[in-house]
Amino acid sequence: MSTENSSQRPSLEQQSHSRNSLRQHYINIRNSVSPKQQKEQALRLLECFQRNVMSPKLQKVALYITNKAELDTAPLISFLWQLNIDVYVPVLHPFCKGHLLFIRYAQTTPMTHNKYAIAEPILDVRNVIPLAELDTMLVPLVCFDEHGNRLGMGGGYYDRTLSAINKLSHKNKPQIELIGLAYDIQKALSLPNEKWDVPLTKVLTPSRLYRF
To answer: Which InterPro entries does this UniProt record tie to the protein (predicted)?
Structure first.
């Protein structure tokens, strides 16, 4: 897959398009990835992770279970399991609307589907991890730009999670490594941002690790 953006991209970004218009544009780009390419890109992502992110310090990693045309995390999750690294995935918070909990995810974890038809573990409070105890969080996104700005699906779930992590860092808590995951074709020139947006310092794609 080419790392170049579509020919439509500059004209879209140079105009005053809403975040929703940009979001839909990049969702369409992401949806254009064929099933065969998805598998290829997932394996390349794993290789890039092994080269650029893997460290003996990694013990508790949060990431997402792939939905639809998102960059597939299944090979990466299997790799982490093989190394006995604890994997945590998000579930919708049952009481705090718009928030996420992160639950330990293993091969034997009983699963369900949430209101968005996304697979998630059945909630068990014994397997919930406080954010401060995570080493690394791999964050899904619709697109990102050259400054680390991120645009998600619009529900605000990860915006709230990233904001909570950002507050932890200001309280001298152990810093959590935040890394966006995306196809190369999800990179934009520039994205609008709001006061609640938390920029990423790194984004991992199948071809490289971006640092901002």
So the answer is: FTHF_cligase, FTHF_cligase-like_sf, NagB/RpiA_transferase-like
The pTM for the full model equals 0.88
169 — pLDDT class (breaks 50, 70, 90): confident
Q: Which residues contact 30 (CB under 8 A, 6 or more apart)?
A: 69, 70, 142, 183, 185, 186
All domains of the chain, ordered by start, with CATH? 9-211 (3.40.50.10420)
Tokens, residue 26: 């990049």
How far apart, in whole angstroms, are the C-alpha atoms of residue 54 and residue 4?
27
Q: Region 58-79: what's the mean pLDDT?
A: 97
Got the DSSP string for 74-107? HHHHHHHHHTT-EEEEEEE-SSSTT-EEEEE--T
